[in-house]
């Protein structure tokens, strides 16, 4: 039979068993942490009932018709496409230039 001294010198007992415990214990620990993660995501995804009614198609099927009516009211003849400032341009200065150009044009 093995003595305690022989067990301490055995490489399998010295390195293999702690490694095996780490791998098996880690898998159980990761399972618990991922379960917490998914539970918290499920809680965070819950919406207000009013917002959920707007998002959920079955509860409010007239969203497309309402949006169509809003778009019909917009005057598309006077619409202009205005370019926004580039990242290297000063946004305040560029907005002032755009406003002055719009004021000059009838």
TrEMBL record:
<protein>
    <recommendedName>
        <fullName>Cytochrome c oxidase assembly protein COX16 homolog, mitochondrial</fullName>
    </recommendedName>
</protein>
<feature type="region of interest" description="Disordered">
    <location>
        <begin position="84"/>
        <end position="106"/>
    </location>
</feature>
<dbReference type="GO" id="GO:0005743">
    <property type="term" value="C:mitochondrial inner membrane"/>
</dbReference>
<dbReference type="GO" id="GO:0033617">
    <property type="term" value="P:mitochondrial respiratory chain complex IV assembly"/>
</dbReference>
<keyword id="KW-0472">Membrane</keyword>
<dbReference type="Pfam" id="PF14138">
    <property type="entry name" value="COX16"/>
</dbReference>
<comment type="similarity">
    <text>Belongs to the COX16 family.</text>
</comment>
<feature type="transmembrane region" description="Helical">
    <location>
        <begin position="12"/>
        <end position="30"/>
    </location>
</feature>
<keyword id="KW-1133">Transmembrane helix</keyword>
<keyword id="KW-0999">Mitochondrion inner membrane</keyword>
<dbReference type="InterPro" id="IPR020164">
    <property type="entry name" value="Cyt_c_Oxase_assmbl_COX16"/>
</dbReference>
<keyword id="KW-0812">Transmembrane</keyword>
<keyword id="KW-0496">Mitochondrion</keyword>
